[in-house]
Amino acid sequence: MLQLQQRSGFRGPKSYKFGFQTGDECNPLSRHEARSRDGVVKGHYSYVDPKGVLRVVRYEAHPKYGFRVLLDAFKNNEKSEKTKSEEGNKITRKRH
């Protein structure tokens, strides 16, 4: 069964918000994004890769600092371990 959910809206000039979810249990897909009045865009999307692993990617785009990926979460069949590095509390992942 295919399901589709959609959200949209905004808060003042130069801002927006939207999102959707679709797919089924075996093949979910989603995307959500919002832009604030100061031009910062934050969002995330998810999909199932060819190996059947659900991937969730969070991102941010800043007018001054540019685009960066904040998180790539691994779920389902792939094990991951988050560890904090002592150098700048950077998050790294060890794959098993």
Automatic annotation (TrEMBL):
GO molecular function, one term: structural constituent of chitin-based larval cuticle
Organism, scientific name: Leptotrombidium deliense
Keyword set includes Signal: no
Gene Ontology CC annotations of this record: chitin-based extracellular matrix
Pfam families in UniProt: Chitin_bind_4 (PF00379)
Record-given protein name: Cuticle protein 6-like protein
Keyword Protease: no
InterPro entries cross-referenced by the UniProt entry: Cuticle_Struct_Prot, Insect_cuticle
